[in-house]
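User: Continuing from earlier, I have the next pair ready.

Assistant: Great, send them over.

User: Here they are, in order.

Assistant: Folding the first of the pair now:
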Amino acid sequence: MAQILAPSMQCQMGSAKISIKAGPVTAKMWNSLVLNHRLSGRNSFKSASKFRAFSVKAASDNGVVNRLEDLLKLDLTPITDKIIAEYIWIGGSGTDLRSKSRTISRPVESALGLPKWNYDGSSTGQAPGEDSEVILYPQAIFKDPFRGGNNILVICDAYTPAGEPLPTNKRYRAAQIFSEKKVIDEVPWYGIEQEYTLLQPNVKWPLGWPVGGYPGPQGPYYCGTGADKAFGRDISDAHYKACLYAGINISGTNGEVMPGQWEYQVGPSVGIDAGDHVWCSRYLLERITEMAGVVLSLDPKPIEGDWNGAGCHTNFSTKSMRDEGGYAVIKKAIRNLSLRHKEHIGAYGEGNERRLTGKHETASIDTFSWGVANRGCSIRVGRETEKQGKGYLEDRRPASNMDPYVVTSLLAETAILFEPTLEVESLAAKKLQ
């Protein structure tokens, strides 16, 4: 792990006691402790597992943590049919995730088998104090990698008691678009590349960076290997496995260009599933970084200057694009996207203007462009798609903090449902030539 958070405690090695103040204990600090212990001639730890236990045990009761871990790992399946459902929803900022747990009498196969629930919307910025009740509608379920067994994670959207979707409920409108017959017939596929940055707690500076300073320039970090290049790999790997366990359609992961930054890919997913899977994957990442004592950032430009930002590139295709002759359909979709560039930019994430500067593998936020194999364009088409005459396009404009319900449904709406006049379409085609 990148670091271990330990409370104020006494760790005992042989007859020597070491006091550790509250706060993050880095791997380097622990290595120093072990080295000093060995130099003193005392016996070292017999196993890595015992060393790990010493790093979190309090001197007052060395068995407390073990007993707590035993309880957390309890398998309830042989004892009761009851399960724990973690209801997850999006808070008032549109990017913050909230959750709470409830007991369900028996395992369920679908969200339809779960009851609606409510929460205090005045505490999430979604309702006034005098009328604070907000209703959660279960929409999708995933296996819970933290509790295991038949326990589940439940992706919900939020409504007023009268049944009206909250303004922050972007899933509602997305579900309407994905329910359109023309959209259903086109079977829209999405592959979403979620970039994120890991920050050191308290100082909110990227993981692996010297506090108040900078690492070497970009170059060796992208897909890099080594203690001086890859910061936070354990978090990325833990998240990868947690997603697979949960049933999220994660397809890969890699270290990114800026040190301390990572990416994972979700898809191909069809329609509304893409948004559900990305939001659940973000929840898992929040929980894992919480356990590791590291701060997760989806800021599109976490560090100003000559550093890459963080995006959420969205790969998109329809049945017509994937069939023979699909390249012409892709070009028409690109023309439609050019006509609605401002609308898409306005919906593609907060702070995106700090990222889309025309530098660091981005296009200018003010100008729409497309190209084959060009990562400096708004829309990139792959070489293989051009060669085969069919395939997909990549929208490189969405920021890392974008709402996947908004981006996926807007792409479907623009590419499939939007019908510009012939005059406007002809003008757009000339501009893009």
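And the other member of the pair:
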Amino acid sequence: MTILDLTSHPVAAKYAVLVDVGYLYAAAGEVLLGAKERKEYRVSADELIQALQKHAETRIHGELLRIYWYDAARDRVPTVDQRVIAQLPWVKVRLGNLNARGQQKGVDAQIRSDLEALARHHAVSDTILLAGDEDMVPAVEAAQAYGVRIHLWGVEPPYGTNQAERLVWESDTVEIISADFLRSYFSRAPVPVPAAPAAPSPAQVFAARTPAAIKPKAPVGQITKLGPSRPRVEEVGEHVAQKWILTRGRDNIRDLLPGPILPTVIDTELLIEAEKELGHSLRPYPEARVWLRDGFWARVYREFEIGVGVSSK
């Protein structure tokens, strides 16, 4: 990684980091894994963002305004990863549309608009732009006209270059992020393993389960609060999974695999959805949370034909 000393500014800078996720992921996937499509790999996006933030702090002496994370999603419905990223501090997720061919639409326009607006309103003195498209050039020139310094970051290419030559020319400084820097945040996606013919179906597993869990005896004089039944909670978990598959898309739900652990944000959404279905809270019943996840994963595993899985009791 080329080291550029930008810490000698006489006045502390205020800066933003604008990341074209499509470029970052595609370039990193190619150089690290030889991958051509995003579904071929997984990204520890939250850790990657933190690493980029820390790296920016070593390059620019000043205050971070925020990190803008430009990505795309089918019908602009955020994926699991995007919903988790949106919860991170100082991170703004901006979504374009992903068409049927997997092409991003509207992302470049959002980057250009934000870059120009930040400069026009004097919100920043410096901007780190992690991108490679020549379409960024007019926005870079406009931002510079307002006095903003543009620091272009790129991903190490396997050969040649993966950034437009003119974009490189117009930027104030240029740095290449090495493959070694990115390596620990990218991994090859697991290949789903079909269930063995003899494996029981989710329906068979449900049939074999006891209809209700044995609850500990309540202290003398205390009224035991009757909780929801296990079959009903598992049924609701399956229903929520089915609804998410239909509304958020199979590719979105596929991001949760191999399971059975759910990101905290998604686990909370599952609980909220289930409580709406049931019409009452599950918070007082820890065992019901387990049953809910069992039902959810049973439906997800059935959808992707990778066997029956249940969360740990």
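Worth noting for the second one:
The longest strand covers residues 62-73. Residues 309-313 have pLDDT under 50 and may be disordered.
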